[in-house]
Structure formats: structure tokens, C-alpha cells
Amino acid sequence: MQMNIRALMGASALAMFAGAGLAETTITVATVNNGDMIRMQKLMPAFNEAHPDIKVEWVTLEENILRQRVTTDIATKGGQFDVLTIGTYEAPIWGKQGWLMSLNDLPAEYDVDDLLPAIRGGLTVDDQLIAAPFYGESSMVMYRTDLMEQAGLEMPEAPTWEFIREAAEKMTDKGNEVYGICLRGKAGWGENMAFLTAMSNSFGASWFDMDWKPQFDQQPWKDTLNFYLDLMNNYGPPGASSNGFNENLSLFQQGKCGMWIDATVAASFVTNPAESTVADKVGFALAPDNGLGKRGNWLWAWNLAIPASSTKADAAKTFVAWATSKEYLALVAENEGWANVPPGTRQSLYDNPEYQKVPFAKMTLDLINSADPTHPAVHDVPYIGVQFVAIPEFQGLGTAVGQMFSAALAGSTTADQALSQAQALVTNEMTRSGYIK
Question: What predicted TM-score, i.e. pTM, was given to this entire model?
Fold first, then answer.
């Protein structure tokens, strides 16, 4: 399919900012190196034709490095970037600090009311939209239907963790480099700790009790970490402590994973025959649970935001409006097919009969709507966030604990040692920060 740029973009009112007669402006966009963001860069000719007065320069970084760079830049008002790719964690914290520009003045045709409430709510501070979602996600089980059949099992729509363990065991064939389960092991608050924190919710664990006391010395966290390590050591790929989202995606596409529990956004990549050797052999299921009332799925969005100190606000808003618009979704569909449209942001996408034919569309929406950041754990907790804790200190805490748990996966420490270290470190930091009196 060819880009029908004029039909899609020519009459769009999203050009209103450019219509003000901007001088040629260069904006710098910091973004993450995942497939949807790479695809956006390939589709930039559409933006360039509609907005010849705006030049876009890209800084594309690995997830952990991106977070370090943009956090440092915005906190120090460094001014390196005009548009930031940030997550659901940073957006409300930075918005409350006054670090992000309001997007309430996007044109009416942008249709902010079309944004899914679960996603929009996390990007709104004091009634101001402070970031625009590029895609939203939860997490789910992606699995090889052929290997599941060979194992003599049938994946339930809503599996338990015990079923996942049984299936992982039966699907593992290490002699042929097929591993029953692939999970994140790379250290990082948004890497292994995103997975493990969401998983821990379904085991009855939490980061803190109502008095902000860390809970890593409690049985639910021991159960979570030991179950995870048992899965990965027995049925996971070698070197898993270095594997994050992109590494596991590659393994799955190469046919080396029986199951992969990760972001719903990966569904389009594992089912794309141009990229995946098992594209026609992939099934989907809800994230696992333990019958305690919480599934191990998260809620996340990658969003575009503009630093409040930006001197190129008009050009930056023009770009953000384009990249997160209904028209952009149509552009991706025309060029890449509906399955590759950035998911999880707009109700109109899920109302579209063409998109409803995508096999993972409904499950993605159901998982996004079922995640509850205000009540993430089985028990009451004092924080908001499913796979993170929405406090400024969490970025450092999550990464430090992630390093401890990754070391346990690598075999350089035990589960008990890692949990003990996590308890001590988090207790010290929360005491120093004044959460624990």
C-alpha cells in the first residue's frame, strides 16, 4: 500500500499550529528504541509534507538509558529535547512538579475525549492533559499454539500461574533451543521490576504496607521471587538476566519461546510474518493469577510530552498532535495493516470494525480496562501504580531492587539474600525520605 499523504493529512485541522506561519523550526525528539517508535520515524514523510517548516531530529535510546537522559534533562532544565517520550510513571510526577506543558490547547479535531479513560486519567494533572499517549498497553500471555498442542495442553483464556509452570515444563526442549518460558530478567524499574511487581500483585505481595514499611521480608514476596526463579532456571533461556523486552521479543520471533508474558503491544510484532518465524502459530491469554483476585498484568502507556521550558512549543505541539492522532493511526493502517496500528489509546480504534478483526484487539482492551492503578494489590496500599509505585523515589529504588533480583537470576546471590538486601535498602531510603516515621 502507498502513502496517501494528501488524503490523510492535507485537510486535517491538526495543521492549525503550523498555519500560524512558523519560521523553519528544528525540534529534537527523544524516544525509545521499540518497534512502534521506529515505525513512526519511517512514516515521517507524511509529517514532513504536511509541515515543511518543521524539521524533526531524533534521539533514539534503549529504555533504561532514555529514562536516565530525559530525567536528567528535565530536572536540570537542560533543554536538550523539545519532545520527550515518557511513561505513565513519570507523567503525573513531572506534571505536579510543573515540568510539563499543558496540552489542553490541542485542536478540537484531536478529540481528546476519544482517549481511553484508563489511559487519559494517568496523564491528567489538575484537569490538565500533560502528555499525549502514543500507545497504551497491559500485559498478557503470548504462546506457541503448536507447542501447546504437542504438550497435550489447552491454554485457558484465564490461566493460573500453576498452569503456566506445567506448560513451561512440557514445552521445554533445550536440545533444540526451545524454552518453555521467556520473561524479563534485565535489571531496571521498567524492565524486570515491571514484570515482577505486576506478578507479585497476583501473589498477594506489595511494595509497602499502609505505613510505608517495605514488604520484601514477607511470605508473598518470597513466593513470587522463588516461583519466578524456578520457572526461569528450569525452563527459561540461558543468559536470561540480560534479557529485557527487545531481547525476549527476538527470541520469541525466532521460535525459541513456548510462552512469553509481556506487553500486549508485542502482539503485532510476534504475529507479523515479515518479522516472526512463528507468526501463524501464536495464541493469546490473560495474564496469570493465583485466585486471589488480582492478575499479574500491568497498565502502561508511552506518551509524548513537552518540557515546560521549551522555546519551540508551537512546533512541538504540532508534532505531538500528529503523532498521537486518529489520522496517524489511519496512516499506519494504510501502510502497515491494522494489526500494526499503535494500540490502547483511542476508543474509536476499538469501535472500528476493521480493527475488531485483529485477534488480540479485544483482549488488549479488556486487560487495559481491568488494571486498577488505584487498587493494585490484594491488600490496601498507600500508593498508586500497578507495576510501579508512583513516588519520585521509585525510579532509584526499583532499579536497585531490580539489580538484586537480576543477580539472583544470574546465580550470583540467592533469593533470600536478594530479598533481605531489598528490604534493608528500601527501608533505609524510605526512612531517609521521611515516609517511615
Answer: 0.84
pLDDT per residue as tens digits for the range 390-407: 999 999 999 999 999 999
| Residue from 41, 34, 39, 40 nearest 87 by CA | 34
Q: Which residues span the domain enclosing 223?
A: 140-298+384-432
Domains identified in the chain, total number: 2
- Summarize pLDDT for 242-283 with one digit per residue, the tens: 999 999 999 999 999 999 999 999 999 999 999 999 999 999
What sections of 263-360 are H helices per DSSP? 267-270, 313-323, 326-336, 347-351, 353-356
Residue closest to 70 by CA, chosen among 190, 195, 185: 190
Q: Which residues contact 21 (CB under 8 A, 6 or more apart)?
A: none
Average pLDDT over residues 189-206: 97
Give yes or no for a contact between 210 and 204, defined as CB atoms under 8 angstroms apart: no
Indicate the residue type of 119. Answer: I
The CA-to-CA distance between both ends of the chain, in Å, stands at 62
